[in-house]
């Protein structure tokens, strides 16, 4: 476990209010902390110091504590009670290599079936939206060199929307419920996958783009077996890349 070396500042709060002056302070703090965790500005395993964060943001402890409790509910922060339960410690959630492998296995079980269902009845999907997401995803990956963090966040957002579109398109509530139980962890891994791509050869980035296109084509052409196969290869590729690029202690 490490102490938080990342610093917040009150300007973050003010910028949020400039956009939406009616936004609740707890919601702002929640968004700030969530983004810091997802981008690893608050690294996995980092101890959350509520007093320190409150002081840096220029707010009372209450909204920070409320935001932390919400993030605990999402599984993004872990609360550890001491033996007498009088004191609590908070840490950013971590995910090890075995958990990454297990998560991708679960993701494959859900998404490969969903892709096959969508290909069998592709009227369930708006293929124009799917195509647009592919194009946005490709464009965001192409800008890694100029602003890697912004490009990473955009690529991850389009990636998640692409895959969620397929899950929703399957019109199967049980698949959807299973997916939603791991969605926060998948969001984290989506960001990590895009980040790891910045460490990988450019060919890997192009392969990621071509895999999304292959999934789109298989569904659009109505080939269920092919859709299942290319989705499985895509998820396996992402899994291998994460496991290779993730450094010990990261």
Describe this structure in words.
The protein is an alpha+beta fold. It is 69% helix and 6% strand. The protein has helices at residues 10-19, 25-38, 50-57, 61-73, 97-120, 127-142, 148-169, 173-181, 183-197, 202-221, 224-245, and strands at residues 2-3, 46-48, 77-81, 88-92. It has a 4-stranded mixed sheet, covered by helices on one side. A hairpin with a 6-residue loop joins strand 3 (77-81) and strand 4. The longest helix is centred in the middle third of the chain and has 24 residues, at 97-120. It is elongated, with a radius of gyration of 20 Å. The model has no long low-confidence stretch (mean pLDDT 86).
Name the features.
11 helices; elongated; four-stranded mixed β-sheet; alpha+beta; single chain; 250 residues; 6% strand
Briefly say what this structure is.
The protein contains eleven helices and four strands. It is α+β, with helices and mostly antiparallel strands and 250 residues long.
Helix tally equals 11
Strand content: 5-15%
What sequence of helices (H) and strands (E) makes up the elements?
EHHEHHEEHHHHHHH
User: Between the first and last Cα atoms, what is the distance in angstroms?
Assistant: 11 Å
Task: Write down the overall mean pLDDT.
Answer: 86
Arrangement of strands in the largest sheet: 1-2-4-3
* Largest sheet entry: 4 strands, mixed
Shape: elongated
The structure class reads alpha+beta
Number of strands: 4
Radius of gyration: 20 Å
Q: How much helix, percentage-wise, in residues?
A: 55-70%
What are the low-pLDDT stretches, counting only 5+ consecutive residues below 50? none
């Amino acid at each position: 476990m490490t102490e938080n070396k990342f610093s917040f500042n009150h300007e973050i709060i003010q910028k949020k209010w400039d956009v939406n002056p009616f936004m609740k302070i707890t919601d702002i703090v929640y968004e700030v902390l969530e983004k810091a965790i997802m981008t690893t500005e608050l690294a996995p395993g980092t101890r959350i110091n509520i007093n320190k964060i409150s002081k840096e943001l220029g707010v009372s402890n209450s909204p920070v504590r409320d935001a932390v409790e919400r993030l605990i509910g999402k599984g993004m922060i872990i609360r550890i009670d001491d033996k007498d339960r009088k004191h609590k410690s908070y840490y950013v959630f971590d995910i090890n290599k075995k958990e990454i492998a297990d998560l991708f296995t679960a993701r494959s079980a859900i998404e490969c079936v969903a892709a096959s269902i969508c290909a069998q009845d592709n009227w369930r999907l708006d293929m124009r939206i799917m195509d647009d997401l592919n194009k946005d995803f490709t464009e965001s990956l192409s800008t890694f060199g100029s602003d890697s963090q912004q490009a990473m966040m955009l690529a991850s957002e389009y990636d998640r929307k692409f895959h969620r579109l397929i899950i929703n398109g399957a019109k199967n509530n049980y698949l959807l419920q299973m997916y939603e139980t791991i969605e926060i962890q998948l969001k984290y891994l989506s960001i990590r996958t895009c980040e790891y791509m910045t460490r990988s050869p450019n060919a890997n980035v192009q392969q990621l783009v071509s895999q999304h296109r292959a999934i789109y084509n298989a569904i659009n052409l109505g080939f269920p077996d092919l859709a299942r196969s290319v989705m499985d290869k895509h998820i396996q590729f992402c899994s291998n890349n994460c496991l290779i690029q993730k450094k010990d202690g990261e």
